[in-house]
Amino acid sequence: MSTRKASLTDKQTKNGTSKYVLERCASINEYYDIAFKVMLLGDSAVGKTCVLVRFKDGAFLGGNFIATVGIDFRNKVVDVDNLKVKLQIWDTAGQERFRSVTHAYYRDAQALLLLYDITSKSSFDNIRAWLTEIHDYAQKDVVIMLLGNKSDMAAERVVKMEEGEKLAKEYGVPFMETSAKTGVNVELAFLAIAKELKHRATQQPNEPKFQIHDYIESQKHKSGCCMGTR
Ligand SMILES: Nc1nc2c(ncn2[C@@H]2O[C@H](COP(=O)(O)OP(=O)(O)OP(=O)(O)O)[C@@H](O)[C@H]2O)c(=O)[nH]1
C-alpha cells in the first residue's frame, strides 16, 4: 500500500533507532481478546508520532522533526478488567496535502485522539475544523478525546489549560494535557480510551455505563498527579 509509507520507520531509521521496526513485527502475533482501531489526528508537529511512540515504547523521539508521510499504525495490547485489549493505533500525517489519504481511514476508527500543541495557537484554533472533519468522515458514535500536548513546555505556552477544558466541554469530550517528552498523562489517555471501548463492546443491559470523565478524574487523584488532566 503506497500510502503506508512508514512514517515511523522513516523517523526511526533516520534517528538510528530501527529496533522499533523489529519490535513492531514481534508484537503482531501478541495474544488479545478484543481489538479496536484508534486514530491520532491534529495539525502537523503537534506531537502525534511522539505520543504514540511514548505510549508504545516509553521513549521520546526528540531531535529533528520529520513529518509523517500518509499514515502508519502500531499495535499495543493493554489489560482492561482481565481482558487483553489490542489497540491498533493509526498515526496520521497532519499536513494538509495528506488529508484525502487520511479521510479514508476515519470510518474504521472507533476512537480518535485529537491533539493540539499548547505552544501553538493555530493548532488549537484548528481543532474546530478537525471536529468538523470528524463529523463529516467518522462513525457517528466514535469516541473522541482532546489532548493538549507538550505540557512540559510551560515557558512557551500560549494556550491556557482552561481554554482546552472549555472547548472540550463545549463538544462534550474528555480532555487532558499530555507530554510525549515526560510521559505525563500519555498512558492514561490511551487506557481511558481502551476502557471506554471495551465497556461499549461488552456491556450487559443491566450494567452501569462506563464514565470516562470520572475514570480520568479518579486516576488523576490516585496517581497524586493532577498536572494537565481534566
Ligand atoms: N517538548 C516537547 N516536544 C514534543 C512533544 N511531542 C512532540 N514534540 C516535538 O514536536 C515535534 C513534532 O513531533 P511529531 O510527533 O513528529 O509531530 P506530528 O504531529 O506527528 O507531526 P506530523 O507527522 O507532521 O503530523 C518533534 O520535534 C518532537 O520532538 C512534547 O510533548 N514535548
From TrEMBL:
GO terms for molecular function: G protein activity; GTP binding; metal ion binding. GO terms for biological process: protein transport. The keyword Zinc-finger does not apply. Its cofactor is Mg(2+). It catalyses: GTP + H2O = GDP + phosphate + H(+). Its EC number is 3.6.5.2. InterPro entries: P-loop_NTPase, Small_GTP-bd, Small_GTPase. This is small monomeric GTPase. The gene is LOC108881040.
